[in-house]
Design a protein that fits this description.
alpha/beta; six-stranded parallel sheet
């Protein structure tokens, strides 16, 4: 039963309603439950909050015991960015792998099955899909999270993902509007700037978002990026020109607009989270995401009080805050209608997963990962005759991905070739050190975005010069030319991508 504390006035309730905070731990802290009683309508989950499907289901049940219409959001893109399987790697390939296959029915089905698993755990809001067109191959934060560099391909797969996810009763939150693909700066660290004409934005970056709106996406996430052709003064998250005039006006979008994490440095360093939140609401955002780093009651109180003070001072119109809060509540009502066990379209699918999905549903992620492989041979290929050595050339982790999630092929290859050993190498001496560690064993080298890391290219040069029978597995964007005795591009580093690559290396599946 939804409860609202009688002592909480409407203005304060609305200020709490528009927040999407995070929290520590695998059970809900008392302060969070209390805030739900006072009007908080959403919470955000991160890897730290997830230990198992059973624990996650218990956590979401705990939240709903306090507020039955709570929106429970998570950053579950599949592929490299996973929270459900943060400690094992995802059962689903990410966007770039799906774009490489280019089968929109497959993308729909993968998103639907991912949605089923979220719904079975009580999660009804997913900060996905990423609709960014990866126009800059050196992009440090999007990369394989994008369906690709072609706007039309990204558009058709964004639409398929949205419809698939929402058919399971889970809100799709298409991100990062108006497009984070043409950036060489990570907005977690600083303010990216996209200096292209408005015509380029219209024919490239905005194309997938138009498709998402047409597909009925229930939420859109703003990007912390400066796009001077649209607004020379304010980043998208804080720009009325971008959120209200462009997204709502020109694109005709009427759903929920949520910000990217307000503690990211692109906003926090320049504006502070309190002022940034006020400006975001005034610009047209409806929900304030915070909690990836700041995840305590003090943060919730600070943002609540900042919004209330801004209304009372006249900086933020009260009707704008009320409108934003109503959009949150409207979305909560949609999730209640489409929740598993209701008469909504998602009921049978979600219930099916809860009772045990079919074999096809269980395997769809692996099927997709296998189809996504791009295998290049340079002459006849002989699989390793004995257990190989896997050398992982490991770059600094993408902040959005994090460093908690394992990746690579070693674990999967060890199941097929027992005795497989592995090591992780980085820096200018990675090549000779890896050669020494491998000894006389066949080498499988795993790289991630080789084209972005000169040290990685140099290390690979060293290995291939000494050992031309080396097998290369690229688990990032396959921008560098393929080379090695066998070159396998997985288009992502999900666990299933590693398994598909390991099968090809071992000859379990013909490369």
């Amino acid at each position: 039963m939804t409860t609202l504390a009688g002592r909480t006035d409407t203005l304060t309730r609305n200020a709490l309603t528009v927040l999407q905070p995070g929290f520590p731990g695998t059970t809900a802290p008392d302060w969070l439950l209390r805030r739900l009683g006072e009007g908080l309508a959403s919470v955000g989950l991160f890897g730290r909050n997830v230990a198992s499907p059973e624990q996650l289901a218990a956590l979401t049940a705990q939240l709903r015991a306090e507020r039955d219409d709570v929106l429970v959001a998570i950053d579950e893109e599949g592929g490299d960015v996973t929270r459900l399987e943060v400690r094992t790697g995802s059962s689903f390939p990410g966007n770039h792998a799906l774009g490489a296959v280019d089968d929109v029915a497959l993308t729909h089905d993968v998103a639907r099955e991912l949605g089923r698993r979220l719904a079975a755990c009580g999660v009804n809001f997913n900060w996905a899909p990423a609709a960014d067109v990866n126009a800059d191959p050196a992009n440090p934060v999007i990369g394989v999270r994008s369906f690709g560099a072609d706007p039309d391909l990204a558009a058709r797969h964004t639409a398929a993902y949205v419809t698939g996810l929402q058919s399971a009763g889970v809100v799709a939150c298409t991100k990062h509007f108006p497009g984070h693909g043409d950036t060489a700066v990570d907005s977690h660290l600083a303010m990216p700037r996209i200096d292209v004409p408005a015509e380029v934005l219209q024919t490239r970056d905005l194309v997938p978002f138009r498709a998402a709106v047409a597909a009925g996406t229930r939420a859109v996430m703003s990007a912390h990026i400066l796009v001077p052709a649209l607004d020379p003064d304010r980043p998208a998250t804080l720009s009325r020109r971008i959120l209200t005039d462009l997204l709502r006006g020109e694109l005709g979008y009427d759903g929920l607009i949520v910000t990217d994490g307000m503690e990211m440095q692109a906003i926090a360093a320049a504006y502070g989270i309190e002022r940034g939140s006020v400006l975001a609401l005034a610009a047209g955002a409806d929900a304030i995401c915070v909690g990836g780093g700041l995840n305590d009651d003090e943060t919730v109180r600070r943002l609540r009080d900042a919004l209330v003070s801004a209304v009372r001072s006249g900086e933020l119109p009260e009707e704008r805050l009320a409108d934003a809060a109503e959009r949150v509540r409207r979305l909560a009502r949609w999730t209640a209608r489409t929740a598993p066990g209701t008469n909504g379209s998602a009921g049978p699918a979600a219930n099916g997963f809860a009772a045990g999905a079919s074999q096809d549903q269980d395997d769809i992620g692996l099927v997709a990962a296998r189809r996504a492989l791009t295998v290049t041979r340079f002459g006849p290929y002989e699989p390793p005759a004995s257990a190989p050595y896997v050398a992982a050339f490991t770059p600094v982790a993408n902040i959005a991905v994090g460093d908690e999630t394992p990746w690579g092929v070693a674990a999967e290859l060890a199941r097929l070739l027992p005795g497989t050993e592995t090591g992780s190498f980085t820096g200018v001496d990675a090549g000779p050190v890896a050669l020494a560690a491998a000894g006389d064993r066949r080498i499988v080298v795993v790289v991630r975005d080789e084209h972005r890391h000169p040290w990685m290219t140099g290390a690979l040069d060293t290995l291939l010069a000494a050992r031309p029978d080396t097998i290369v597995v690229e688990m990032g964007i396959p921008e560098a030319p393929p080379r090695g005795a066998l070159h396998i591009a997985t288009h992502g580093a999900a666990r299933v991508c590693g398994r598909a690559a390991a099968e090809a290396v071992a000859g379990a599946r013909r490369p």
